[in-house]
Amino acid sequence: MAERHRLSPSRLVGILGGMGPAATVDFYAKLVRHTPAEQDQDHLRVVIWGDPSVPNRQEALLAGGTDPTPWLEEGVRRLIDAGAEIVVVPCNTVHAHVRPVMAGQPVEFIDIIDTTVEAVRRRGLHRVGLLATDGALASGIFQRGLDAAGVEWVLPSPERQASLMRLVHAVKTGRVDTATLTAMADLLAEIDSRGASTAVAGCTEISTLLERPPGGADVVDPALELALRTVERARHT
Amino acid sequence: MAERHRLSPSRLVGILGGMGPAATVDFYAKLVRHTPAEQDQDHLRVVIWGDPSVPNRQEALLAGGTDPTPWLEEGVRRLIDAGAEIVVVPCNTVHAHVRPVMAGQPVEFIDIIDTTVEAVRRRGLHRVGLLATDGALASGIFQRGLDAAGVEWVLPSPERQASLMRLVHAVKTGRVDTATLTAMADLLAEIDSRGASTAVAGCTEISTLLERPPGGADVVDPALELALRTVERARHT
User: Are residue A70 and residue A26 in the same domain, yes or no?
Assistant: First the structure.
């Protein structure tokens, strides 16, 4: 088996998913779409642990809810036991909890927040809109990364932030319709009117709504950036 | 850990994927979309072993190419080691090789061919078009299932069958465009003209092209049927 895997052109990518499931599907789709391939065999080998039963991260970050750490530890262990050599987690919010879990693990971890901040720097942006969940904002994970990179960030108004949380819920419950896409466009328009012409879609549920990006809005998509970086690192043996 | 899992509302679903990757994404998307859920925690727990390095099944079935069985055995073992209680394989063609691998395994196996034939029966169809790869047709796996159910089957002309194989390749290499969708519509129109108003899309790459089903064509989608059956069985604890 080891012999066979040595012949493989890529390292095994472990995806800790299920947070939420639609966001994991979206990330996996982007990973496949952005892997140059002439046949199945050119694609990356992946193992996905998709456990949607991880306790609610908003409640954990905002209201003293159940700590999701044991579920994350278990998922990472299963991925590593299955042979994962790289671990990625297509959920921005959970990175507040997943970073300590990944510290010291014997595999490479590609951090979605760091990858996104790096993409913002590469584009030469000095000011971005920050679309993230209440929990992610409370953890300060994106703000600290952008601050360290010298990038200003602008948040939606409280009203639009509440709308953002409803969008996330619509994706998680499979209830995306025209009204959802209109609300998404309004959110981006507000961010633009607050002085940020580019928004960071810092929630992987929001990422799923960017297939048909509303009217010319410029968006940095962490799910896409993580996929691109994963393809690059998986080939780097 | 066992304690925690006993609380979970679903059995762990193992998906043997990567054949091809886009088809696995499509199946996972259908599984998520068709799971009734009010929150992440209502979704199914899944583990996906996505190994696109499994040797080409067309070559194995048609030209004495490398037997994919050892790769399938390894994938199934990894899924079971990870705790899978149900195994599904969102690839029709590989079922010729995967059935013997699953025989005697200590987990439930939901066979995509059997599930599809059952869906054809439930719809009361007596005659269907059969869209499957050259390899799947050579193995006779679908024909035997339909014969046993007393359902007649109609194949595309050799010319359209060659077109079908090109469609499968286009999906596997991420090169789906308007011409691909036109060719798909032509294929369904030919099947209809050959006396089958409903087609079985017996290849999961073909399934990925059915998001926008061409002009009113009636299709049985094995990927969708497998997803629906998986949701049902995963809740059956």
Answer: yes
Cα(B41)–Cα(B154) distance, integer angstroms = 43
The residues pairing with B140 across neighbouring beta strands, listed in sequence order, are none
Q: Domain check: are B104 and B160 in the same one?
A: no
Per the structure block, which two tokens stand in for B192? 């209809």
Q: What is the extent of the structural domain holding B22? A: 13-111+225-234
Tell me the nearest-neighbour CA distance from B107 into chain A, angstroms.
18
Contact B6, B192 (CB under 8 A): no
Integer Cα distance of A167 and A175 in angstroms = 9
> What digits encode the pLDDT tens for the residues A68-127?
999 999 999 999 999 999 999 999 999 999 999 999 999 999 999 999 999 999 999 999
B149 is catalytic: no
Model confidence pLDDT, tens digit, residues B4-45: 443 356 899 999 999 999 999 999 999 999 999 999 999 999
Residue of A16, A54, A167, A203 with catalytic role? A203
Residue of A53, A59, A171, A211 to mutate, testing the B interface (most B Cβ within 10 Å of its Cβ): A53
Q: Which residues of B touch A25 (CB under 8 A)?
A: 25, 28-29, 32
Return the CATH number at A216. 3.40.50.1860
Same-domain check for residues A120 and A82:
no
Model confidence pTM above 0.90: yes
SS3 content of chain A, % helix, strand, coil (to 5): 55, 15, 30
Per-residue pLDDT reduced to its tens digit, B112-163: 999 999 999 999 999 999 999 999 999 999 999 999 999 999 999 999 999 9
